[in-house]
Design brief:
The strands form five sheets. The protein has a nine-stranded mixed beta sheet, with helices on both faces. It has a seven-stranded parallel beta sheet with strand order 5-2-6-1-7-10-11, with helices on both faces. A three-stranded mixed beta sheet has the order 16-17-20, with helices on one face. The longest helix has 17 residues, at 519-535. α5 (115-130) packs across α6 and α12 (307-319) packs across α17. Helix content is 35%, strand content 22%. It folds into two domains: 4-280, Rossmann fold; 287-414 and 461-478 and 486-535, Rossmann fold (3-Layer(aba) Sandwich), CATH 3.40.50. The protein is of the alpha/beta class and 536 residues long. The protein is globular and about 75 Å long.
Length: 536
């Protein structure tokens, strides 16, 4: 069987939810028992988003192989329940880097290097590379139709239909149907113009998915069908779903998007059972019990900066049959304690740089002393070690050399191999690493095993020299990476009688799935649920 290719583009405005739609379509096609993979093209010139501020591009998602990628890969993993890799996210920066590398080494044999065919060929190569042993490859094109940055990718996917045959390619275009309040009307003109722009490039969409905040009648679909030259049934409506983005596969299935697409690709329709998915969505929408978890960070103005943590808490809540309300606490605010009084749990997430660190340390002290369920992640773990060293071990001024290079007690220090690093991009400790867990610990109880693999993204580590005094005072290193004996997990010993105080150097949120929640988040929510009852 030849691999089929589905290309998803977006028009009118950005942030239409192309990633969610792409992932949802993947869920439906996998349910038809097809081998599906997903590819994201990003049109920016950064090689990857690793050096970007979260306010620029949201969360940086890390894969098993250590690739720093677009946050949409998190959607793909959470929905499709399969691991992505560096092959699943291609930026324009990567494409040009590869092309220029080949030019410098003479691989083009003296030819003038041009966008067409050299850049477009490199783009097509990345699509065909990921298609090996797959039935269907879904490719999401970042950006919006009309952006100059996206043109090489659009030209490449136009050519692919010529390369592999019309019956093996489908184009899906996602647009916005804006509601004009003054006129009380849904307007189709932006969609018409977006499709017109796409057709100017040489691509005619087979299916149009319309994002809308209002219910739309068949007459609107017929109008889009007429002016955009698609069948009425191939105009799919995707209304806003609020907090439950996992409802999107069900909405698309109701309108037979999967069947329409399979027909266009001349693929057999098989029994599509997503009943378990539907049950989880129903559970999410009907849960009456609620708990509040605080996420204490410095990027709280942009919720996408903590996207995977938010989703991991949703997964854990559904499987614990409790709704999780997220309260974002800005660690740079002077008086954040008011926001912590009624929370059932606190998470201090990762980050980089000195800004906001003292606030994180104060919040961790609050969680420790008031016995509020606590989870520290990456920098959150390092701040937990600093807080404990200062306030329990009496190591006055204990700090990380990232924030104070002259501290007398560098309880967090740069790894030796990182001291030689000059280039910041892609040079951290990245990707999947082994962690061995000590028996009889909270970590051992959570994971139910003594050997785990988790994803990392950091440069600094707990300093070995201070582990004995820290453990002596009751902060146990319950998980270690065996090569170098690096501290991976710390937790309060039983002498403190704390319901849940654990911090990890890795990022567990990257491995949580809608149907399979991560055990750390599952147990945090489970304990937080009991903690709320104890507060009453």
């Amino acid at each position: 069987m030849k691999t089929k290719f589905v290309f998803i583009t977006g028009g009118v405005v950005s942030s239409l939810g192309k990633g969610i739609t792409t992932a949802s379509l993947g869920v439906l096609l996998k349910a038809h028992k097809y081998k599906v993979d997903v590819l994201k093209f990003d049109p920016y010139l950064n090689v990857d988003p690793g050096t970007m501020n979260p306010y620029q591009h949201g969360e940086v998602f890390v894969t098993d192989d250590g690739s720093e990628t677009d946050l949409d890969l998190g959607h793909y993993e959470r929905y499709l329940n399969q691991n992505m890799s560096k092959k699943n996210n291609i930026t324009q920066g990567k494409i040009y880097e590869s092309v220029l590398y080949k030019e410098r080494y003479g691989e083009y044999l003296g030819k003038t290097v041009q966008v067409v065919p050299h850049v477009t060929n490199e783009i097509k190569k990345s699509v065909f590379k990921i298609s090996r042993k797959k039935d269907i490859v879904i490719t999401e094109i970042g950006g919006t139709i009309g952006d100059i940055e996206s043109l090489p990718f659009l030209e490449a996917i136009r050519q692919i239909r010529l390369d592999v045959g019309k019956e093996n390619v489908a184009y899906i275009h996602i647009t916005l149907l804006p509601y004009i309040k003054a006129a009380e009307e849904i307007k189709t003109k932006p969609t018409q113009h977006s499709v017109m722009k796409l057709r100017e490039i040489g691509i005619e969409p087979d299916i149009i998915v319309c994002r809308t905040e209002k219910n739309v009648g068949r007459e609107v679909k017929e109008k889009i069908s007429l002016f955009c030259n698609v069948e009425v049934d191939s105009v799919i409506l995707e209304p806003d779903v609020g907090d439950c983005v996992y409802k999107v596969p069900l909405i698309l299935k109701e309108q037979n998007l999967d069947k329409i697409l399979l027909r266009k690709l001349k693929l057999k329709q098989r029994k599509c059972d997503i009943s378990n998915w539907a049950k989880l969505v129903e559970k999410f929408e009907t849960m009456e019990n609620k708990i509040t978890i605080a996420i204490a960070g410095k990027y709280t103005q942009l919720k996408d900066a903590y996207k995977s943590i938010l989703e991991a808490l949703i997964h854990a809540g559904i499987h614990n049959e409790v709704g999780v309300n997220i309260r974002y606490v800005n660690v740079e605010e002077k008086d954040f304690y008011e926001k912590l009084k009624d929370v059932s749990g606190i998470i201090v997430p990762g980050g980089f740089g000195e800004r906001g660190v003292e606030g994180k340390i104060d919040i961790i002290k609050y969680a420790r002393e008031n016995k509020v369920p606590f989870l520290g992640i990456c920098l959150g773990m390092q701040c937990a070690v600093i807080e404990f060293a200062r306030n329990v071990c009496r190591l006055k001024g204990a700090n990380s050399t990232e924030f104070d290079s002259r501290t007398q007690y560098p309880v967090i220090d740069l790894m030796e191999d990182q001291k030689m690093v000059k280039y910041k991009g892609g040079t951290m400790r990245l990707g999947m690493y082994l962690c061995k867990i000590k028996k009889g610990t909270l970590a051992n109880k959570i994971y139910r095993t003594n050997k785990i693999y988790e994803r990392h993204r950091h440069r600094y580590e707990v300093n070995h020299k201070f582990i004995p005094i820290i453990e002596k005072n009751g902060l146990l290193v319950s998980g270690r990476h065996p090569f170098g004996n690096l501290a991976e997990i710390v937790e309060l010993s039983s002498r403190y009688d704390h319901p849940f105080f654990i911090a990890v150097q890795f990022h567990p949120e990257f491995r949580s799935r809608f149907e399979v929640p991560h055990p750390i988040f599952y147990n945090l929510v489970k304990v937080a649920k009991k903690f709320k009852i104890s507060l009453k």
